[in-house]
Amino acid sequence: MFNLILFGPPGSGKGTQSDSLVEKYGLIHLSTGNLLREEISQKTPLGIEAKGFMDNGQLVPDEVVIGMVDSYFDKHSEAKGFLFDGFPRTVAQAEALDKLLDLKKTEIAAVLALEVSEEELVKRLLNRGKTSGRSDDTNEEVIRKRFAVYSNETKPVAQHYKKAHKFHPIKGEGTVDEIFKSICKEIDKKIV
Ligand code: ADP
């Protein structure tokens, strides 16, 4: 298996780049944000629990997200590999992912981290909010809250992968195509 993590703050372009990456490398896209929004739209108990956290810009509890990833992983046991998007978002999630992959006798090949200035991120998110119908993108206060959560809880995940020499920063500003090429360049170094 060949597994990648696309890492970066809200609005850094993970969703946009994921679509092209899964196609090019034949991976299964595992976006915890998308999975949670799907649960919300189906009004499942998990979705109902998650909605309150998401609308406030808070993280959904680790055990909920980890359980969801676990079952998605089992549903796609034939996958060539996964592209994790928006996960892991806490050190506890990263540790749980290590264990899960270890059980499946596989690992993370690389973490690709999109770097974008906060000013540009707010602009992109407010813009996305106009068309996406995502309530967490329309309110600047909720957006700022998500950045604070990112700083406090998600940034330490970078250190987890730096220690393992798997962390690769990528300039996340420029055209979608330029950024895609930079990501592919890093990935291709890992494919022998
Ligand atoms: P973005 O990164 O643009 O904020 P996502 O779609 O990845 O968008 O996530 C939206 C919301 O879903 C987050 O603000 C959070 O509440 C919740 N969420 C997504 N992934 C996770 C995760 N791995 N752990 C906890 N909460 C998550």
Walk me through this protein's architecture:
The chain has 192 residues and is α/β, with parallel strands linked by helices. It has a single domain, classed as P-loop containing nucleotide triphosphate hydrolases (Rossmann fold). Helix content is 59%, strand content 14%. It is built from 8 helices and 5 strands. It has helices at residues 14-25, 32-41, 45-55, 62-75, 91-103, 118-132, 140-163, 176-190; strands at 3-7, 28-31, 82-85, 108-115, 167-171. It has a 5-stranded parallel beta sheet with strand order 2-3-1-4-5. Helix 4 (62-75) runs parallel beside helix 5 (91-103). The radius of gyration is 16 Å and the shape is globular. The mean pLDDT is 96. Adenosine-5'-diphosphate binds at residues 10-11, 32-33, 36, 53-54, 57-60, 65, 86-87, 89, 93, 136, 146.
Give the topology.
Elements: E1 3-7, H1 14-25, E2 28-31, H2 32-41, H3 45-55, H4 62-75, E3 82-85, H5 91-103, E4 108-115, H6 118-132, H7 140-163, E5 167-171, H8 176-190
Parallel strand pairs: 1-3, 1-4, 2-3, 4-5
Helix pairs in contact: 1-8, 2-3, 4-5, 6-7
Bound molecules: adenosine-5'-diphosphate.
